[in-house]
């Protein structure tokens, strides 16, 4: 583990949590947050939905996380719940929205 990278609990600009089968994204979903999340080894195998309504920024690491979750769920389609504009626009720009069922 790289000591220069913050732990998940040290990041205050955004959050990633799991509530049942829903992955909840909030705030800035950037490299630091996603990297800390992945290092915490949280299970995402059973994620059926991604709640992105409180996302204020979605960086490339956040987009990659969504892709990984969508691919891991195949053949099921992951539902993207009420995405904020800052979450939806980059996903659309990269074509990732085609991997998801979007509920607005």
Automatic annotation (TrEMBL):
Alphabetical list of SUPFAM superfamilies matching this protein: SpoIIaa-like
Regions annotated as coiled coil: none
CDD domains attached to this UniProt entry: STAS_anti-anti-sigma_factors
Pfam families given in the database record: STAS_2 (PF13466)
Domain MlaB-like STAS: 23-97
Protein name from the UniProt record: STAS domain-containing protein
